[in-house]
Amino acid sequence: MPRRTIRRPTELTGVGLHTGADVRLRIAPGPSGSGLRFRRTDRPGAGELPATLASVGATDRRTVLGQGDDRVETVEHLLAALGAHGVDDALLELAGPEVPILDGSFAPFWDVVAAAGLVEGPGCRRRWEVLGPFELAEGDATYRVSPAGDLALAVTLVHAEPVIGRQRADYRGAPGEFAREIAPARTYGFLAEVEALRARGLLAGATSEAAIVLSDTAPLNTSLRWPEEFARHKLGDLLGDLALLGGPLRARVEAERPSHRGNVACARAIAARGRFVEEE
Ligand SMILES: [Zn+2]
Fold it and tell me: Do 200 and 37 form a contact (C-beta atoms < 8 A)?
């Protein structure tokens, strides 16, 4: 299977959810074999930051790559869209510390990559396979991983609050499935959490257009795109965090109450137990 990159550069501009910084993201073709790499264009001399597990700096509410002033925050929605498009190589230039949140979903990233188009390059794509089933727990999150010929993800959320309750989303990577069933699902938070997160310096860029804000019983600022929009969003987050493996995953992953910390632990367990093979 040849490697894929984006056909021509494309751009997006918006505000970072946690930092509140206005930022421009440029997605450009990458040399075959380079993988997905971030570059902070507002920090001259900063090196490229590969979107890999080795780069993960923090997993508190969002996935952060790198450390200190050269970090890149909230990479998961962009990486999910690139992973769903099957992009192996791209340069992700960011003129600030955080990928823009936009409408809180994956769709704006999916759409600009779709509009720019994809092109195949030299070299061979490699994929991850797991050799046997295993389970993993990280805090409240649990993961069951088993061998499969293709990707299959299932996410179950279990919340005491009736607005979410127990809900599930499934994904099998069929053509058009991500754009139709996952990409429009938005990030969300409970109103009660918002002040606590703000006190910790997060959510500086949160507006009512960037996330679903919830009471225990109802969305407060918008109507839902699906009753289980929350599980669909968390499934997209899982796909984005699994993209840090550096190649497509051919396995079944069933996640209950997933978190970014758990997703990264799951990806690390796959890398430790699986094999990374050239895809015919
Ligand atoms: Zn998310």
Answer: no
E strand or H helix at 206, and its extent?
none
Which pLDDT score is estimated for 130?
97
192, two tokens:
């009660």
Do 242 and 163 meet the contact criterion of CB atoms below 8 Å apart? no
Asked if 75 contacts 264 with a C-beta cutoff of 8 angstroms, the reply is: no
Ligand 1: centre distance to CA 30 (Å): 25
Rg over CA atoms, the chain: 18
Measured over the CA atoms of residue 246, residue 232, residue 135 and residue 160, the dihedral's sign is positive
Backbone conformation region of residue 164, classed left if phi is above 0, alpha if psi is from -120 to 50, else beta = alpha
Give, for 261, the enclosing helix (H) or strand (E). Answer: helix 260-273
Residue ranges in 86-228 assigned as alpha helix (H): 107-116, 177, 191-199
Name the residues annotated as catalytic. Answer: 260
Residue ranges of domains in the chain, CATH in brackets: 2-126 (3.30.230.20), 129-278 (3.30.1700.10)
Question: What is the pTM assigned to this prediction?
Answer: 0.96
User: How far is the centre of ligand 1, averaged over its atoms, from the C-alpha of 39 (Å)?
Assistant: 21
In tens, the pLDDT along 21-64 reads: 889 999 999 999 999 999 999 998 888 999 999 999 999 889 99
CA distance 249 to 126: 9
Is residue 100 within 8 A of residue 16, CB to CB? The reply is yes
> For residue 124, how far is its CA from the centre of ligand 1 (angstroms)?
30
Gap from CA of 280 to ligand 1 centroid (Å): 32
pLDDT digits 0-9 by tens, 116-140: 999 998 999 999 999 999 999 999 9
Sign of the torsion formed by the C-alpha atoms of 197, 220, 262 and 270: negative
